[in-house]
Specification:
- The complex is a heterodimer.
- Chain A is mostly helical.
- Chain A is 72% helix and 3% strand.
- Chain A contains ten helices and two strands; from the N terminus they run αααααααββααα.
- Chain A has a two-stranded antiparallel ribbon with strand order 1-2.
- The N terminus of chain A is likely disordered.
- Chain B is mostly helical.
- Chain B contains 13 helices and no strands.
- The chains are: A mainly alpha, B mainly alpha.
- Chains A and B meet through helix 1, helix 2, helix 3, helix 5 and helix 6 of A and helix 2, helix 3, helix 6, helix 7 and helix 10 of B.
- Chain B: This is PTS sugar transporter subunit IIC.
Chain lengths: 272, 259
């Protein structure tokens, strides 16, 4: 992560300006979220300090502000890369770069959302959430603090992203693409390993039924355990996985189905 | 028989809900995660173990699920707060708490939708101020977005806890024993949903081997979760390094910016 392309001391934009953009997005990058333009209002809000500095004529500033109020939506951590690159481009080309900036914003927000949601949402949520939940079920809050530490570390990652985006400018796409792709792959492997371990540890229903014939008593759960540990959890996950793949099924419906199923099977003593 | 909830407790949890949704959108230290909300509510209500158990169960239902692309998801943060608080008030414990938290979380999705919808108003005001050259107001419009967001979480918590005693009283009367035992089964079954959702997101067909490795590590070798995560990290690093090497060999400079 070199920063050779841009020198922050010679341009119009200083490190302090860049930090303002970073701070505004960190503290206000989604509060104005709405269905019509999603993060559009927030993006404009975050760019404001730089826009004010670059465009001293009111007409120019107005044009730029209206430009940045348009639709935008991506994963909040990854947005810092786009913001950084945007600042660099507008600093060097001014209002003439309007089309370039729109192109880079709309071109990157989709792929960056995909990567960011996978890494910062799905994988990090799975790994840290599993550890926290696993410990919490044993009455231990330590996992919550570990998760908190990671989330605070993300503030620094987000500042690094802002600087990286600024340094790379237009080259951002090429610089990030290959790396992020293999990082997403690697993170998916980590995620899947943890998910595999989650199945036998946090899905915990058992079969309490006991069969009795003369002197012999057979505990169903004991037999199941001999076949494979956590057979019921595996079967349940497979069932829900299949269920979610059906047409017109969504997670909310699946919750209701599982609730009803648990209550019925619990009432008859089939699951415990 | 019941524990009373004080006004201070109600207020603390209401403020927490407001701050937590702001945190979810911005600073994201995780206050809006069901497990953190359950933990905090447990602290405030004086039963940390219950809060952790309720929060963890709800957390496992939505592991790795977030508001991708602006989609609304069950509000288990608010569910976790109200469920835990009612669990403590009623003295009925974790099954009762989860049994309440899940439907509450599902119902409150509507308020998330309402908040996102309401903010469109501020976007339109911002457009108008931009036309007038009143840029300070454009910025203010973004900041005002915090109000619909915050209230969408704070109001349900405040109302539920303000009438906490009465609500719990009538709920306990309609909860028969078989329902309670069913809910305790549900608490052990529902994490299967979170896992299945994850498997739908992750490239499970391509990397099914790692799922099996994780399973064996935990089910047969009884390695704790942190240990499994470290092994998973090691496996991921190996694949990452290999793909970087391959990329370097295949990719000898020459960059196309048009992708």
């Amino acid at each position: 992560m070199k920063m050779s392309n841009k020198n922050m001391d010679t341009g119009k934009i200083t490190k302090r300006d860049l930090k303002k953009v970073y701070r505004r997005w960190l503290l206000g990058g989604q509060i104005g979220w709405n269905y019509e333009r999603m993060q559009g209002l927030c993006y404009c809000f975050s760019m404001m300090p730089v826009l004010r500095k670059l465009y001293t004529k009111e007409e120019d500033l107005k044009k730029a502000v209206k430009q940045h109020l348009q639709f935008f939506n991506t994963e909040p951590d990854m947005a810092h890369l786009i913001l950084g690159a945007n600042v660099a481009i507008e600093e060097s080309q001014g209002l003439e770069a309007v089309e370039t900036v729109t192109a880079i914003k709309t071109g990157l927000m989709g792929p960056f959302a995909g990567i960011g949601d996978t890494i910062f949402g799905v994988i990090a949520g799975t790994v840290f959430g599993s550890i926290a939940a696993y410990m919490a079920l044993n009455g231990n809050s330590l996992g919550i603090w570990i998760w908190l530490a990671w989330n605070i570390a993300r503030w620094f990652i987000r500042w690094e992203f802002t600087k990286l985006g600024y340094a790379q400018g237009l080259k951002l796409v090429a610089a990030m693409e290959g790396k992020l792709k293999s990082m997403t792959e690697a993170a998916s492997i980590l995620g899947l390993t943890v998910v595999g371990a989650l199945i036998p540890t946090v899905v915990r229903p058992t079969v309490p039924a006991v069969f009795q014939s003369r002197e012999v008593t057979m505990e169903v759960q004991g037999i199941l355990d001999q076949i494979m540990p956590a057979l019921i959890p595996v079967a349940l996950v497979a069932f829900v996985y299949w269920l979610l793949g059906r047409k017109k099924m969504n997670s909310t419906k699946a919750i209701w189905i599982l609730l009803a199923l648990s209550i019925i099977l619990g009432a008859f003593g089939i699951l415990g | 028989m019941y524990m009373q909830i004080t006004f201070i407790q109600t207020l603390l949890l209401t403020i927490y809900a407001f701050v937590a949704i702001y945190d979810a959108l911005e600073t994201d230290i995780g206050l809006s995660k069901p497990i953190q909300a359950g933990f905090f509510t447990g602290l405030v209500m004086g039963d940390v173990t219950l809060g952790l158990a309720v929060g963890a169960t709800l957390q496992l239902m939505i592991l790795g699920v977030s508001t991708y692309g602006g989609a609304s998801i069950p509000d288990f943060m608010t569910g976790s707060i109200i469920g835990t608080a009612f669990g403590v008030i009623s003295g009925k414990g974790i099954e009762f708490a989860i049994g309440l938290a899940v439907p509450i979380g599902l119902l409150l999705v509507q308020l998330d939708v309402l908040a996102r919808f309401t903010n469109t108003f501020f976007q339109h005001r911002a457009d108008k101020y931009a036309d007038e050259g009143n840029f300070k107001k454009v910025e203010t419009m973004n900041i005002l977005g915090i109000i619909p967001w915050g209230l969408s979480r704070a109001i349900p918590v405040f109302i539920a806890l303000l009438f906490g005693h009465e609500i719990v009283d009538s709920l306990v009367k309609v909860f028969p024993a078989w329902l309670m035992s069913g809910l305790s089964v549900a608490g052990r079954v529902l994490p299967a949903l979170g896992i299945a959702i994850l498997l739908r997101y992750l490239p499970v067909k391509k990397y099914s081997a790692y799922l099996l490795i994780g399973f064996v590590l935990a089910a047969y070798l009884k390695i704790p979760m942190v240990g499994v995560a470290i092994i998973g990290l090691a496996l991921g690093l190996l694949v990452y390094q290999r793909s970087q090497r391959e990329a370097q060999n295949a990719f000898a400079g020459g960059v196309n910016e048009d992708e």
